[in-house]
Design goal:
Helices cover 24% and strands 26% of the residues. The chain is of the alpha+beta class and 337 residues long.
Length: 337
């Protein structure tokens, strides 16, 4: 474990923003993390994982602690289920593939989501009708102030839509070191009714899909809609889909007949933020080195040399425009630093 100085973080964030870390250390063991936490106060640390859910707008003066904890172990297994304890630094899509190769079901709909496993509970990642909360048993996290390991069970994580206790009352207090998931070994419960999964399966003449079929369909859909961060800098969906009251939705429907929606309760409706952004005229719009992706309006992109602040200012303009046109306040899904 060696602390380096003046390190570019461009390779470590999927937006490809070239900001500098005044001090940087790569952590490969929990013991190394404990040592760093004992030496530095929380004010002196910037925790970096897969770099997939962040927008960096300035150089980082704090010590950047890059979590590279790896490993997958079986902690329980019977004829029907298996529980895997996965280290926080494991790439999420590699974990999905690891499970697919062994026919472990439950996370196939979450294929190709960028980032590392340790970030999945923070954001309660989700796609195509599945969220991490649906399979999570617990996660281990280290208390930054006293270096004690605490196990957070499902109910303690207080999951919501792209939300958790780690984004609210415990924000900045814990570092997740591992995640334990419960997956099925047989009798998989398949979710194909969301998005374009069924359409893609029909194109492939798949009538009795396996979890592998669903994953392949999801990968195909996401690849067509979302740019590869290795080719165009981005952080996936930049905004959350807003949830509005049923009354608000009915008013909008009178003015915008084609507005899509998903009812989430008797009194609330979810509206796709991508539709709002496209309707506001931003889809595919480019501003020099940054802009909105041509195939998916939810995705803001860095074409090469944009600054984080330029992308942030674009996101604020989009939010203001949507509020002006629709009277809806959309929220960012990424963390901005």
């Amino acid at each position: 474990m060696q602390i380096e100085t003046n390190i570019s973080l461009k390779p470590y964030n999927t937006f490809g923003i070239d900001v500098k870390a005044k001090k940087y250390v790569s952590i490969n063991e929990v013991a190394e993390l404990v040592s760093i936490l004992k030496e530095y106060s929380s004010d002196d640390l910037f925790i970096l994982s897969g770099g997939s859910n962040m927008l960096l707008t300035t150089d980082i003066s704090s010590l950047v602690v890059h979590l590279n904890l790896n490993g997958i172990e079986t902690v329980y297994e019977d004829d029907h289920i298996i529980r895997l304890k996965i280290a926080a630094g494991e790439n999420w899509h590699k974990v999905v593939n690891y499970c697919l190769e062994r026919d472990y079901g439950g996370i196939e709909n979450l294929s190709l989501i960028p980032g590392n496993t340790g970030s999945t509970p923070i954001q309660n990642i989700g796609a195509y009708g599945v969220e991490i909360k649906d399979v999570l048993v617990s996660c281990d996290a280290i208390n930054i102030s006293n270096q004690q390991i605490r196990t957070f069970h499902l109910s303690e994580c207080k999951f919501g839509y792209r939300d958790s206790v780690f984004k609210n009352e415990l924000k900045g207090q814990y570092i997740i070191t591992s995640v334990t998931l419960e997956l099925t070994k047989k009798g998989h419960f398949l979710k194909t009714e969301y998005g374009a999964i069924n359409t893609e399966l029909q194109k492939r003449d798949v009538t009795n899909p396996t979890i592998q079929d669903i994953s392949e369909a999801v990968v195909k859909i996401r690849s067509e809609k979302l740019p590869d961060p290795k080719e165009i800098g981005n952080s996936g969906s930049f905004f959350k889909n807003p949830i509005v009251s049923l009354e608000k939705y009915k008013t909008l429907k009178n003015n915008f007949e084609d507005i899509p929606s998903y009812q989430v309760s008797d009194s609330e409706v979810k509206i796709p933020a991508g539709w709002l952004i496209e309707k506001s005229g931003f889809k595919g719009k480019r501003f020099g080195e940054y802009g909105v992706h041509k195939n998916q309006a939810l995705v803001l992109v860095n074409y090469g040399n944009a600054s984080g602040n330029e992308i942030y200012q674009l996101s604020e303009l989009i939010k203001l425009t949507i509020d002006r046109i629709f009277g809806i306040q959309i929220e960012t899904e990424v963390n901005i630093f």
